[in-house]
Amino acid sequence: MPMQPTPLIYCDHNATTPLHPEVWTAMRPFLLESFGNPSSLHTEGQQAREAVEEARAHVAQLLGAAPEEIVFTSGGTEADNLAILGAAFARRERGRHIITSGIEHPAVLGSCRFLEEDGFRITRLPVSPAGVFAPDDLARALTDDTILVTLMHANNEIGTIQPIRECAALARSRGVLVHTDAVQSVGKVPTSVDALGVDLLSLSGHKLYGPKGIGALYVRRGVTLASIVTGGPQEEGLRGGTEHVAAIVGLGLAAQFAGRDMPAEMPRVAALRDHLERGVLTAIPDVWANGAEAPRLPTTANLSFQGVDGQSLVVALDLKGVATSTGSACSSGSLEPSHVLIAMGMPAERLRGAVRFSLGRGNTREEVEKLIHILPPIVARLRQHSNGSVRGV
Amino acid sequence: MERGYSPIVIDHFRNPRNVGELADANAQASVTNPVCGDVLKLTLKIVEGHIADAQFKTLGCEAAIAASSLLTEMIKGKGLLEAQTITPEMITTALGGLPKVKLHASALVEEGLKRALDEYARRR
């Protein structure tokens, strides 16, 4: 029996964003009539080539970089892999030590683990209870054997913004390459590669109202990487494979919009996020705002509800047409609790009630009001189910 | 299937039966799933070899809450011998199936039941 679709209040923009309608319009011809391979010499190919290079320029502009410093990849994960594995393989004769943090995205942690199994030494910097790592810890960790520092700009689960400028300056003063996973920060806060002082920076299309399956790695002029998707001459030999022209065009336009709209959109969404957070903290007792003491992305509110399982709250909200996510255990295929919340030293009972609300372009004041209205009875009901099951709860 | 969940799970999650803690319980158990941290407190009132009443409190995911609710419905009125034959698979089936990653919910409530019945038997 067909169900009545519940109107959707989408609060999971850190997971992915809907395609901007104009981005789809721009992409469509390159999936249909303008199907040329950019490496082909004929007109169809050259048209595709032009579109790719125009998109490259837009991405570069968002980062304050030169177009030739942008390498297109299949997404943020591949960009992270290319940066980390590519830098490590290119520099392995110079050293075997890499520094990262305990709150990185699995793409970064996975690349580092891969290298660890290959004989590299990995240091994972701790974070404060607010979810921020400290330049001092980096300074202490740097050695003469260090070849790469890879530290995220903003964390996807709690939205905290990290001191990249200071960390990059420290690392580069020791001749160490600096990569930042900026997948969550690009398009939300300024991400000028020179202001940050990084050599490598990853971004992802589908976090920017662009398509999935496309991302980019910024590679500072003069930095050498080994390629990991080998074989083709594309992307100056750094990333083989026929370009996904439509997705690249989409990413380019999304990047343009992000740069254009950031000054107005970010204060707007920050105000919504703050209103949501204040409203929830006022209406519901025993709620923590995780990471709120640190500088944060304007979009993210990670809230812990005492006495509630985050997973069950996400499902209950889903049944009411609100999309959120959780870092507590037992969510979509994984039984592991969030390594980010664990790294923050969060006690188990606070961690298990954690739910992330990440707002975006489509969210309105009315939606936030509705959310503030529907949350308290849901939380009260779940607390009633659980109260007394755990001593002290 | 509403948003991918079994309708029975949704029903028990939205409207759980027998939530609470029996004041006159004569059998009970508290169990925790160490893997994902779900917690169940099950209280039973056993009269003349039958489970006259049962209530639960659960801190856990939607599958755990649904399984707890369904279990209490399943066992009310049953004799102790029959209650002993309940398996996690029976609970999963009665829930309309569970994704593999949620099977721990059935295991949790079955363990709660067995522990409560064992404790009752030992005390007699």
Structural commentary:
The complex is a heterodimer of chains A (393) and B (124). Chain A is an alpha/beta fold and 393 residues long. Chain A is 41% helix and 14% strand. Chain A contains twelve helices and 13 strands. In chain A, the strands form three sheets. Chain A has a seven-stranded mixed beta sheet, sandwiched between helices. The model of chain A has no long low-confidence stretch (mean pLDDT 94). Chain B is of the alpha+beta class and 124 residues long. The N and C termini of chain B lie far apart (45 Å). Chain B is built from five helices and three strands; from the N terminus they run αβββαααα. In chain B, a hairpin with a 6-residue loop joins strand 1 and strand 2 (39-47). The longest helix of chain B has 20 residues, at 104-123. Chain B is globular, with a radius of gyration of 14 Å. The model of chain B has no long low-confidence stretch (mean pLDDT 93). In chain B, helix 4 (88-94) crosses helix 5 (104-123).
